[in-house]
Design goal:
Layout (H helix, E strand, L loop, with lengths): L3 H16 L6 E5 L2 H11 L3 E5 L14 H8 L3 E4 L9 H8 L11 E3 L33 H18 L4 H26 L6 E4 L5 H7 L2 E5 L10 H14 L3 E4 L6 H10 L2 E4 L13 H18 L4
Parallel strand pairs: 1-2, 1-3, 3-4, 5-6, 5-7, 7-8
Helix pairs in contact: 2-5, 3-4, 5-6, 6-10, 8-9
The structure holds zinc ion.
Length: about 300
């Protein structure tokens, strides 16, 4: 027979459980707006997400602001691109945040690249002469939508570990994102299919995943080496090569000077296309799926303007 004390304690516990508020949302800071968008897709109202770098900024070089340190101080989870993309600015911010939860290796730190498909992982020795080569492979991997899906899956698993009661919500939201992404991929693949094998030039090595996915062949870069500004001799060689191969498209990230790309375009008859590498790169690019809608549309219309294949 249960004692009256036990019954009243159980009743009190029940009342307490009913009255207890919904647990607070998980505070997430991401280094880029792409990761923020994917985190929102999976986390819904169970997360509060803020990105550090704006989508129109060069993610290799972000000016450290005190407000970033405060954001990181209050974060439960930090999601980073990894592969040394943020190596120039993130480590001191993490250190100064004095937040043990989000230090690399801690439970509240997620390197989104770990489950992504990474291209250009160098083999052999890396020297300074190679330029700013990322020794862990190309960090611009989010520009293949299948890597967006892999990032979403990793975030789903992480959020579920942090808030086990919401596991079902996160799983359902991931499934919905995956379904919408699949529908969009069919649309993008169909739009790009007529141009498979088209040769292009890009400013920086931001687009290997995008180009591999959509069948574009990058034959050269405006930068002589990654992170090294254009030089006259390299530009002349590039112009000759573009003329030889009939290249009519130069993709440029929004944060690079257009002077050299424009002079290359004048010499070759090519079109300079300022493509958005990230969510927030243009006002209308408000989420991860709209990023590819924008970029695929822009590339297709540029190809058509320059005479198709
Ligand atoms: Zn880069």
């Amino acid at each position: 027979m249960r004692s009256p004390f036990f019954r009243s304690a159980a009743a009190l516990a029940l009342v307490a459980a009913m009255a207890s508020p919904v647990p607070a949302a998980i505070n997430v800071v991401t280094t880029t707006e792409d990761l923020a968008s994917i985190t929102r897709e999976v986390g819904g109202d169970r997360v509060k997400v803020e990105a550090i770098a704006k989508g129109y900024q060069d993610p290799h070089f972000v000016e450290a602001k005190p407000s970033f340190i405060l954001k990181l101080h209050n974060a439960d989870l930090l999601v980073a691109v990894g592969r040394e993309l943020e190596v120039g600015w993130l480590p001191p911010l993490i250190q100064q945040s004095r937040n043990a939860k989000i230090q690399p290796g801690a439970d509240g730190y997620l390197d989104a690249s770990l489950t992504a498909r990474i291209l250009e992982i160098p083999t052999g020795q890396i020297t300074r002469a190679m330029g700013d080569v990322h020794p862990l492979g190309n960090p611009h991997y989010w520009l293949d939508p299948d890597n967006g899906r892999r990032i979403a899956k990793a975030i789903e698993a992480k959020l579920a570990r942090m808030s086990p009661g919401d596991t079902g919500t996160f799983a359902a939201r991931y499934a919905d994102f995956d379904r919408r992404l699949k529908e969009a991929e069919a649309r993008w693949d169909a739009a790009m299919a007529p141009y498979r094998g088209l040769k292009i030039v890009t400013y920086h090595r931001s687009w290997p995943n995008f180009c591999e996915r959509f069948g574009l062949d990058v034959i050269g870069y405006v930068e002589p080496r990654p992170g090294i500004p254009p030089s006259p001799s390299h530009t002349i060689e590039l112009i000759q090569e573009m003329k030889r191969q009939g290249v009519k498209i130069v993709l440029v990230e929004p944060y690079f000077d257009l002077k050299t790309p424009n002079s290359i375009a004048r010499e070759t008859g090519a079109k300079v296309v300022v493509l958005a590498p990230s969510v927030g790169g243009e006002k209308e690019i408000t989420d991860y799926i709209r990023l590819f809608d924008y970029d695929v549309n822009l590339v297709v219309s540029a190809i058509e303007e320059t005479g198709g294949k």
